[in-house]
Amino acid sequence: MIDRAPTRCISHLPPLCKHPDLSVIIFVKKTMPSQYNQQQVELIKEKLGRAKSIAIVDYSGTDAAEQVKLRAMIKEANGEMFVTKNTLINLAVDDEQLQESLTGMNAVVISYEDAVSALKKLFEFKDEEEKLEIKQGILLEDGKIKVLSRDEVEQLSKLPSKDELIVTLIQRIQGPAYGLVNVLNAGPRNLVYALNAIANKDN
């Protein structure tokens, strides 16, 4: 009979297998993200750094054609829709308030142009197709993150976008003489302030 040295278990590791060295390997793999996943987390962080708002959406009820349509609508509003692992979203955002939404088949919808435009397209698609579940959202401003409920995301989507605000101002300028005279009497400096205020409202 061949004598074999007894294997030693490491007390702080979970009992994943009988061999201690293999336990270490499995434990590390379970707790340390792979290089690919680390790159994906950094990519998500980069996107969030440019975003004005995002929405977490369950797209499980949609088919491939509908997903293509939704992506196109979001892109039209200078936004983006992408799918990745829930765990990676959680690592990138690092906010416990989102954890309850990060289950199931989720997509992330990002609004880059302003906080509203891409969300308008998202709810437009939802109303047309009667699909999607809007779970939660995030409003990003001055490096700060505000987690939004589903109702708050919808309320945000109903606000006028930056383009709509600019169009409204132009219509007022081109409207009745009273409005035009008031704008001209205010002087060019105040007109510039007004335009800048609208352009920066959602920045």
Structure description:
There is one protein chain. The model is unreliable at 4-31 (pLDDT under 50). The protein has two domains: 35-157, Ribosomal protein L10, N-terminal RNA-binding domain (Alpha-Beta Plaits, 2-Layer Sandwich); 162-200. With 203 residues, it is of the alpha+beta class. The longest helix has 16 residues, at 35-50. It is built from nine helices and five strands; from the N terminus they run H-H-E-H-E-H-E-H-E-E-H-H-H-H. The relative contact order is 0.12. Strand 4 (133-141) and strand 5 form a beta hairpin.
Summarize the SSE layout with pairings:
Elements: H1 20-31, H2 35-50, E1 53-58, H3 64-76, E2 79-82, H4 86-93, E3 106-111, H5 117-129, E4 133-141, E5 144-148, H6 150-157, H7 162-173, H8 177-185, H9 187-200
Antiparallel strand pairs: 1-3, 1-4, 2-3, 4-5
Helix pairs in contact: 2-4, 3-5, 5-6, 7-9
CATH topology of the largest domain: Alpha-Beta Plaits
Mean pLDDT: 76
Strand content: 5-15%
SSE class: alpha+beta
Helix content: 40-55%
Intertermini distance: 77 Å
Residue ranges: pLDDT <50 for 5 or more in a row?
4-31
The appropriate CATH architecture of the largest domain is 2-Layer Sandwich
Q: What is the subunit organization of this protein?
A: single chain
CATH homology-level superfamily of the largest domain: Ribosomal protein L10, N-terminal RNA-binding domain
Helix and strand element order: HHEHEHEHEEHHHH
